[in-house]
Automatic annotation (TrEMBL):
Main location: plastid
Cofactor: Zn(2+)
Transmembrane regions listed in the UniProt entry: 20-38
Example GO molecular function: zinc ion binding
Protein name: Carbonic anhydrase
EC number: 4.2.1.1
Family: Belongs to the alpha-carbonic anhydrase family.
Function: Reversible hydration of carbon dioxide.
Organism the protein comes from: Glycine soja
Subcellular location: Plastid, Chloroplast stroma
Length: 296
């Protein structure tokens, strides 16, 4: 093989390589960006299992006023215009009469109770059921409690708020919320968990609690508020669909005290301050039938 042939071959090869490079490298780059975006989306969808990085103390450097400055990924807490919680005022809602309730199917499956530092949460690792709304299925991941309530109704905050967090396969979030006031009748679901919550006080961070049926938490009211907001803890991810039961439930003072005493921070509250509503719509749904949602 002559030198000129070798040169032209190597030239050809390098041309081919260049062509391959100009083809592959941008694609690899795009793939990298997609992977990066999907990783960060996944990270932002999940609430933190260890909440020690922030707190609820007004004067603290880690308090709600500073959440948005503490990490780049938490900037929505400060700059977002779809933040939660907000006041659900009757005077400002759009009433949607005779609507159909979302399809809700829950089933008992193994769960774990976790002390996240500022709250107690129950996680279902397997499929515990879902909510089907407007063509999207949102799977139940976990529930947890805030005291006092985060959302208010007509300016009034209640004594406790429960959140059931559902996530769709493409990482959209749907949260069912319920507010409670102190009453003689304790909450049934919390009553079932009392022994396990007591175990978390200074003993464990996490405890398997066996088969647990989420339908014990489900709203049975026939009216609820819906609006688009955010997670109420960092990273304050926006686009969360909130569905909050209009009916106020009851919980005993002892149950709320137990939830507060079990967490590591022993703080009096784990409720984020009220956020600006901007010009968001709050829809008020009244279901057309009093039929209970289906469970299995
Ligand atoms: Zn919450």
């Amino acid at each position: 093989m002559s030198a000129s042939v070798i040169v032209s071959l190597s030239h050809l090869t390098s041309m081919k390589l260049q062509r391959v490079n100009t083809y592959i490298i941008p694609h690899l780059f795009v793939l990298f960006i997609i992977l990066l975006a999907s990783t960060s989306t996944r990270a932002q969808v999940e609430e933190l299992e260890d909440e020690r990085e922030f707190d609820y103390i007004g004067a603290s450097e880690k308090g709600p006023r500073h959440w948005g400055e503490m990490k780049k990924e938490w900037s929505s807490c400060k700059n977002g215009h779809l933040q939660s919680p907000i006041d659900l005022s009757c005077a400002r809602v759009k009433i949607i009469p005779r609507c159909r309730q979302p399809d809700i199917y829950y089933t008992a499956t193994n769960a774990t109770i976790i002390n996240r530092g500022h709250d107690i949460a129950v996680y279902w690792k397997d499929d515990a059921g879902s909510v089907y709304l407007n063509g999207t299925e949102y799977f139940l991941k976990q529930c947890h409690w805030h005291s006092p309530s985060e959302h208010s109704m007509n300016g009034r905050r209640y004594d406790l708020e429960m959140h059931m967090v559902h996530v769709s396969p493409d990482n959209k979030i749907f949260v069912v919320g319920a507010l409670y006031k102190f009453g003689h009748r304790p909450d049934r679901f919390l009553s079932q968990l009392e022994k396990d919550i007591k175990h978390l006080v200074d003993n464990e961070v996490e405890r398997a609690i066996g088969e647990t049926n989420p339908s014990g938490l489900q709203t049975r009211g026939n009216a609820y508020y819906r609006y688009v907001g955010s997670l109420t803890t960092p990273p304050c991810t926006e686009g969360v669909i909130w569905n909050i039961d209009r009916k106020i439930r009851t919980v005993s003072e002892e149950q709320v005290r137990l939830l507060r005493e079990a967490v590591h921070d022993h703080a009096e509250r784990n409720a984020r301050p009220m956020q600006r509503r901007y010009n968001r719509d709050i829809l008020y749904f009244r279901s057309k039938s009093r039929a209970k949602p289906e469970y299995y």
